[in-house]
């Protein structure tokens, strides 16, 4: 009963049905893609033993590291939309498990920089490669015309979901 119930809920469309069978197939394919990416994200989070908020914070810290930027607790709070207290708790927890470290700011000795550990960088690469590698593999097999159609569709759907006009 539970599997049938969940399957039917995932198939429910909170809008009018597409006008064509091809349109219905596109909607079904997009739903399968969404389910697969959600499952892949859950696997990565489980592999890393992290919450979605932890992962977002760590991704910001990793990008700052790649860009040669210095993020402190206040920067992280702004990026995440968290209070200072919430970021302090998050940082303390991630430091305790060896995912991040605090270092002195290179130009402001009163400030600290939060940096991802080398091990975290390796762990994140390993955990998310099962998502990004298949994406690149499939994209590499697209013809130029197929790629252009996918790009147009993705941009059009992105604008629609954001409430932007075409």
TrEMBL record:
One Pfam family, short name: MarR_2
GO MF terms, alphabetically ordered: DNA binding; DNA-binding transcription factor activity
Domain HTH marR-type positions: 23-159
Entry keyword Nucleotide-binding: no
Domain of life: Bacteria
Leader sequence residues: none
Record keywords, A-Z: DNA-binding
Keyword NAD: no
InterPro entries, alphabetized: HTH_MarR-typ, MarR/SlyA-like, WH-like_DNA-bd_sf, WH_DNA-bd_sf
Stated name of the protein: DNA-binding MarR family transcriptional regulator
Organism: Frondihabitans australicus
């Amino acid at each position: 009963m539970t599997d049938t119930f969940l399957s039917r809920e995932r198939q429910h469309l909170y809008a009018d049905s597409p006008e064509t069978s091809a349109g219905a197939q596109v909607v079904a394919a997009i739903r399968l893609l969404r389910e697969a990416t959600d499952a892949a994200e859950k696997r990565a989070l489980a592999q890393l033993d992290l919450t979605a908020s932890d992962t977002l914070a760590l991704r910001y810290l990793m990008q700052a590291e790649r860009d040669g930027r210095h993020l402190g607790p206040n920067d992280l709070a702004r990026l995440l939309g968290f209070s200072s207290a919430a970021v302090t708790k998050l940082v303390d927890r991630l430091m305790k498990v060896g995912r991040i470290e605090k270092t002195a700011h290179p130009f402001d000795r009163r400030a600290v920089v939060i940096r991802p550990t080398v091990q975290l960088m390796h762990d994140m690469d390993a955990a998310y490669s099962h998502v990004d590698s298949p994406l690149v593999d499939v994209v590499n097999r697209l013809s130029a015309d197929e790629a252009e159609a996918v790009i147009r569709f993705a941009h059009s759907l992105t604008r629609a979901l954001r409430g932007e006009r075409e």
